[in-house]
Amino acid sequence: MSELIPMNDLEALKAAGVLYPQTEHGWRWLYRHRKTKGFCSVFRRVGRRILVDVPAYIETVRSQPQ
User: Fold this and answer.
1) What is the pLDDT of residue 2?
2) Residue 7's pLDDT is what?
């Protein structure tokens, strides 16, 4: 099972090795633009909460062209 962390829990995301975006505003921007930036598989909705799938995020960032 993948590791899901709430998008607004910046300390837990940082502890999991996700250092960018650094602010909640940055995460919300990435969530709003997830389709155009290729991050659809990274975010999960559970009720009103938006969760980040950390392994999917890392894999998506690694596969993006520089």
Assistant:
1) 59
2) 94
